[in-house]
Design brief:
The protein is α/β, with parallel strands linked by helices. Helix content is 46%, strand content 12%. The strands form four sheets. An eight-stranded parallel beta barrel has the order 5-6-7-8-10-12-13-14, surrounded by five helices. Strands 1-2 form a two-stranded parallel ribbon. Bound molecules: D-xylose (XLS) and nickel (II) ion (NI) (2 copies). One nickel (II) ion binds next to α9.
Length: 433
């Protein structure tokens, strides 16, 4: 045991009326919601990078956190792992997620990076065995090191493409070895700063080829998890190619991968793309590519990916409604891709941030389940489209313009507008919150 979380108890469910800061008010792992324990609906994961690797910097100042593991040695990496697994246990989160660069010291070469990663993977394996904590997903950090400043797969320099491909291979190996349930690709710097120096067509082909290689390797190694892309429209580059779910779907179609790759949808990224979180979830569901979620929020005044812990239950209820309508998670889960504010220095801040986030998710899930079980929203939606379920409605889709024009004439079709009843539905949703 390290002494990082000294004095902080394991968090247990105590119900909504408790006065204890160190307790769950809504997240009751074994409580059954729609026929399934809450923990199996929510499948929480802690993100290694924000919780343990992020130093607290912003564009105006550097590190505010002063953790004892902040040095580039293997010893420090192991101390970081010890502390991380202590947090997973205090919170009782079943999963975690990591990038290679979060967990191992940066080496001077690909070989050194790989060696460091393998050593940490073995260390993780022991800890996972001892604690029962599992890996939701692994990923490669192909955006922090300066070699990736002009992209990874989309870099104008083929050597960077090669270095990236090799790094992805080692991260897929690590994920497989640890029994990870997904492998994530977030397009870190796959985008451009200016069109003046960018060959967009070429970069698109490079990204498509890299993804095909990832899928081929998945099958070659027998990885049974899902390959997930995480869309994001801006940040760090001015324009990110994986803008949103619909854009990525077009890209997958072009490279024949729409049956191979699903989406990891992040709340804050949806907002940056000018959508709502529930829009992106619903879109992925309708396209058959819903996979997993990154559960964090933006500050709506900042217009940036501020990665805060979620706390907006009404919004989350609508998001979980779409998750439930998608049939829930299979390999996916809810990763807290969220970081503390840089003034939140204490170990307890990290624990309480997760407690609040987990409780907000649980409250959102319960509200969503109640909406779905009552069925009033779905009944209203079905009633709105009922015309399409009649014989005339069904045949219409198979007609052509000529025959439709004839029948509109013959039947004197003259539709009257019907209310969308939005406010009534909004009032209905409020009753579940
Ligand atoms: C950044 C992304 C990143 C991915 C993993 O905005 O959210 O954290 O989730 O590379
Ligand atoms: Ni993310
Ligand atoms: Ni993000």
């Amino acid at each position: 045991m390290t002494d990082f979380f000294k004095g902080i108890p394991a968090i247990k469910y105590e119900g909504p009326n408790t006065d204890n800061d160190y307790a769950f008010r809504h997240y009751n792992p074994d409580e059954v919601v729609m026929g399934k324990p809450m923990k199996d609906h929510l499948r929480f994961a802690a993100a290694y990078w924000h919780s343990f690797a992020w130093p607290g910097g912003d564009p105006f100042g550097g590190q505010t956190f002063d953790h004892p593991w902040f040095s580039d040695t293997m010893e420090a990496a192991k101390l970081k792992a010890d502390v991380a697994f202590e947090m997973f246990q205090i919170l009782n989160v079943p999963y975690f997620c990591f990038h290679d660069a979060d967990v191992r010291p940066e080496g001077n070469s690909f070989a050194e990076n790989t060696k460091n990663l393998e050593e940490i993977v073995d260390y993780f394996a022991q800890k996972m065995d001892a604690t029962g904590v599992k890996l939701l997903w692994g990923t490669a950090n192909l955006f922090s090191h300066r070699r990736f400043m002009s992209g990874a797969a989309t870099n104008p320099d083929p050597d960077v493409f090669a270095f990236s491909a090799a790094t992805i291979k080692t991260c897929m190996d690590a994920t497989m070895k640890l029994g990870g349930e997904n492998y994530v690709l977030w397009g870190g710097r796959e985008g451009y700063e200016t069109l003046l120096n960018t060959d967009m067509g070429r970069e698109r082909q490079q990204a498509g080829r890299m993804l095909q290689m990832v899928v081929d390797y998945k099958h070659k190694m027998g990885f049974e998890g899902a390959i997930l892309i995480e869309p994001k429209p801006q940040e760090p580059t001015k324009h990110q190619y994986d803008y949103d779910v619909a854009t990525v779907y077009g890209f997958l179609k072009e490279f024949g991968l729409e049956g191979e790759v699903k989406m990891n949808i992040e709340q804050g990224h949806a907002i940056l793309a000018g959508h709502s979180f529930e829009h992106e979830l619903a879109m992925a569901r309708e396209l058959g590519i819903f996979g997993s979620i990154d559960m964090n929020r933006n500050d709506y005044q900042s217009g940036w990916d501020t990665d805060q812990f979620p706390n907006n239950v009404p919004e989350m209820a609508l998001a979980y409604y779409e998750v439930l309508r998608a049939g829930g998670f299979t390999t996916g889960g809810a990763n807290f891709d969220a970081k503390l504010r840089r003034q939140s220095l204490d170990a307890e801040d990290l624990i309480l941030a997760h407690v609040g986030g987990m409780d907000a998710c649980a409250a959102g899930l319960k509200a969503a389940a109640a909406m779905l079980e009552d069925g009033k929203l779905e009944a209203a939606r079905n009633a709105r489209y009922a015309g399409w379920d009649t014989d005339a409605g069904k045949t219409l889709m198979n007609c052509d313009l000529d025959s439709i024009a004839e029948s509109v004439l013959a039947n004197k079709t003259n539709p009257e507008p019907i209310s969308g009843r939005q406010e009534r539905l909004e009032n209905l949703v409020s009753r579940y919150l």
